[in-house]
Amino acid sequence: MIFPQVELAPADPILGLTDAFKADTRTEKVNLGVGIYKDESGSTPILKSVKLAEEKILATENSKSYLGIEGVQAYNRVVQELLFGAEHRVVKNKRALTAQAPGGTGSLRVAAEFLVRNTESKTIWVSNPTWANHQNIFKSASLAIEQYRYYNAQTHGKDFDAMLADLSQAKAGDLVLLHGCCHNPTGIDLNESEWQRIAELCLKQELVPLFDFAYQGFGVGITEDAQGLRIVADTVPELLIANSFSKNFGLYNERIGAVTLVADTETTVAKAFSQVKSTIRGNYSNPPAHGALIVSTILADAELKTLWESELKEMRERIAKMRTLFVESLKAEGVTQDFSFISRQNGMFSFSGLTKEQVTQLKEEHAVYIVGSGRISVAGMTRDNMPVICKAIAKVLA
Ligand code: PLP
């Protein structure tokens, strides 16, 4: 027999927490672990723009035949417009090619496998800390992982000098994983001049940026959030982008994202992209259609696009309000520690600075679930659950 020797895998640090949350029978429990947007009533609704697009698709779709390996063509075009803007020279000069892929995770995995199989780039630098699944994805694709410092626990801010110092140790051809916006888990992003410096460092040291872009529109705005990516694309000859529409279209279970390859010429990108397609063919052959049809239908229709933009704005603004309310409510509960940095962070997450022991206490004594690193999903907070959360945090800090 071969299965008895297989070891039990450790629970996933984020999804394992959701399993524990579901099994918890306490009535006032709150899950601030996984990055899923909740509205004021605590549910994760289907966007109106998505429902309308689905009605259109249902009425017009006339075949379930296979898609090509790279997915829905119209979708791949609109992905590039969202990433770079339609007028960007990477798009105009046809230096980018995009393949639809299953979510941000699938896109990262395709990118990593393509790189390992076809290039000399076998090492990837990721921020410390980073999204827990990065290690898993890149190890599964046999990339070696190095870390660059990013976060300063004393200031609850970024440590840009340390980031530069660590990346200056990277060798030509090494990959650098960059969070396009709404850094997960810290919620701390680079500003324009810092992006410029990172772009120049990559150019000078011949490092290849791989953008993980899972939160476009959750930070400042759809265009503003692409600033870093566009600065880097303006500067370096080659990069990759793995983007996801799980969060900004609320299409979590449709598994919709894309991998985009940018090379120095149209000819080079076409040649390299043929190997991206080969990687996909040997993995899941070709992607499912529904999520891509939803996104491309919305972005091709001016009214639906405007509706989607307003729905995304509403989600972004609700999270920002929860950040302010969280800081105020902690104060009102008598917490003297300064948590004001939380209202300056971007996106769904905040790095609270709570210790592993405090996180355990929150779960065991108060049924408030957050990730062991102290990362809190602000997107899961509502006016209703805020008092429960803040009272519990005040108690564990007391
Ligand atoms: N990248 C980051 C930084 C994320 O936080 C997530 C999801 O939480 C993803 C990628 C993956 O997104 P998807 O669910 O589309 O695979």
Automatic annotation (TrEMBL):
**GO CC list:** cytosol
Pfam entry (one): Aminotran_1_2
Q: Which GO terms describe its molecular function?
A: identical protein binding; L-aspartate:2-oxoglutarate aminotransferase activity; L-tyrosine-2-oxoglutarate transaminase activity; pyridoxal phosphate binding
Q: Give a yes or no for keyword Transferase in this entry.
A: yes
Broadest EC class?
transferase
- Residues annotated as domain Aminotransferase class I/classII large: 28-393
Enzyme Commission no: 2.6.1.-
Q: Which UniProt keywords apply?
A: Aminotransferase, Pyridoxal phosphate, Transferase
Q: Which InterPro entries match?
A: Aminotransferase_I/II_large (IPR004839), Asp_trans (IPR000796), NHTrfase_class1_PyrdxlP-BS (IPR004838), PyrdxlP-dep_Trfase (IPR015424), PyrdxlP-dep_Trfase_major (IPR015421), PyrdxlP-dep_Trfase_small (IPR015422)
How is this protein named in the record? Aminotransferase
Source species: Shewanella canadensis
Higher taxonomy: Bacteria, Pseudomonadati, Pseudomonadota, Gammaproteobacteria, Alteromonadales
